[in-house]
Specification:
alpha/beta, 2 domains, 4-stranded mixed β-sheet, 15 helices, binds nicotinamide-adenine-dinucleotide, binds magnesium ion
């Protein structure tokens, strides 16, 4: 809906935004974008799992109608840290609370920035309600791709990619016919260990894995970038977002992270989207598209940029990428098993209970042991997730940190 302002120009009504995962890396950067365009957004909902101190500050600044937090204990903590003179806000709790928040009345766009499988249900509910979802939470598509596709088919919901590679492809596809697309080319930074000798991977520390060369992100996705599972998850994400078979989704390592991804077309032309690695750009585009809003994000400096390199990924050194291709091919609950085993293994790696090489081993084990079921329902996916997660969480601790990594 448009209104005509006093100076005669037409201003859009502010978009009513529900931000799921508000306290995380994507969540806080989304709020930075909102700060740049205060008249274009009305923040109605903010959610987090645990960090109620940060959430309370966000509530004071953005005055949402509703928040959702992970547990009753966190809800009490939120009430305690919220100053007495803070605006009135409804507090919802747990998975059901998150789903209610995702379908809050009047919301035009949901930003899905929860990390992991926990993001699936609220995104499905928002799409079922016919809402537009800007999706950062790739695990939702990895686990529930077919369910999401079905909901999109049957209803009025809409999915807009936020992940930088998928945003790049979305931008390259604008104005093109589906039939003329030959290949999607996802670029990957290669993470911090692209050039590190494989023999030293058993010594990789959490601190080293969290030191990403180009992007500043949450701990889970940063670890996924180090194992290159992130690119595996993104191949699956691309398959569901763009409905392209996996043999037409290529991965190229591009250490500078300037080309965010590419599409090659039937006539031999290739379109790429480039920019400084800054998630605020794809976040903003997901919220403004098809328009582009002038913004002061950092520009590419052509005097600084001397070269762009591209290399095929090394699947022996980074087996997680191959495991993701295998799970996608197996179909059914296999990607849910892959994802859950990865989430659990990354959690244990970050807690220093598992070595870096334990991550692909744990996933391989889960994929080998948990039976794969075809055409899963949401309940089947939840069960497969729990089984794979349980299996990895119960793997014995290594005898010492220097062996059995
Ligand atoms: P993060 O860990 O920084 O933040 C996660 C957010 O989700 C937090 O607000 C947290 O409170 C909430 N959350 C975590 N577990 C939850 C649960 N079980 N239930 C409800 N809420 C929960 O993560 P992030 O880096 O912002 O990533 C968010 C998603 O976006 C991930 O799926 C990630 O793969 C994707 N993504 C992130 C980036 C990036 O630059 N950070 C880039 C592309 C895609
Ligand atoms: Mg990405």
């Amino acid at each position: 809906m448009e209104t005509v302002s006093q100076n005669g120009t037409s201003d859009p009504e502010p978009r009513q935004l529900a931000l799921l995962g508000a306290t995380g890396s994507i969540g806080t950067q989304t709020l930075e974008v909102v700060r740049l365009f205060p008249d274009r957004f009305d923040v109605r909902v903010l959610t987090c799992r645990q960090n109620v101190e940060r959430l309370a500050k966000q509530v004071q600044e953005f005055r949402p109608a509703c928040v959702a937090v992970g547990s009753a204990e966190r809800a009490e903590a939120f009430e305690r840290v919220l100053p007495a003179d803070a605006p009135d806000v409804r507090v919802l709790v747990g998975t059901e609370g998150l789903c209610e928040a995702a379908t809050w009345p009047g919301v035009d766009v949901v930003m899905g920035a929860v990390v992991g499988f926990a993001g699936l249900r609220p995104v499905l509910r928002a799409l079922e309600a016919g809402t537009q979802v800007a999706l950062a939470n790739k695990e939702t598509l990895v686990v529930g791709g077919p369910l999401v596709a079905q909901v999109l088919d049957e209803g009025n919901g809409e999915l807009i990619p936020v992940d930088s590679e998928h945003s790049a492809i979305f931008q390259c596809l604008a104005g093109e016919s589906e039939r003329s697309v030959e290949d999607l080319v996802l670029t990957a930074s290669g993470g911090p260990f692209w050039n590190r000798p494989a023999e030293t991977f058993s010594d990789i520390t959490v601190e080293e894995a969290l030191d990403h060369p180009n992007w500043s992100m949450g701990a889970k996705i940063t670890t996924d970038s180090a194992t290159m599972m992130n690119k595996g998850l993104e191949v699956i994400e691309a398959k569901w977002l763009f409905d392209v078979p996996v043999d037409r989704i290529q991965v190229l390592v591009h250490p500078q992270s300037i080309v965010h991804s590419m599409v090659s077309f039937a006539d031999g032309a290739v379109k790429a989207q480039l920019g400084v690695p800054d998630m605020k750009v794809p976040i903003q585009y997901a919220l403004s598209q098809p328009a582009r809003w002038p913004a002061p994000h950092e520009r590419l400096d052509w005097d600084e940029l001397s070269r762009l390199d591209f290399e095929r990924p090394n699947l022996d050194k980074f087996p997680c990428l191959q495991l993701a291709y295998d799970a996608l091919e197996a179909g059914g609950t296999a990607p849910a098993i892959l994802n859950a085993a990865n989430e659990a293994a990354v959690g244990r790696f970050l807690d220093e209970q598992m070595g870096f090489l334990g991550i692909p081993r744990a996933i391989e084990r889960a994929l080998g042991q948990v039976p794969v079921q075809a055409d899963p329902t949401l309940d089947d996916l939840v069960a497969a997730d729990a089984e794979a997660r349980g299996l990895v969480e119960e793997l014995p601790l290594p005898a010492s940190n220097s062996t059995e990594r």
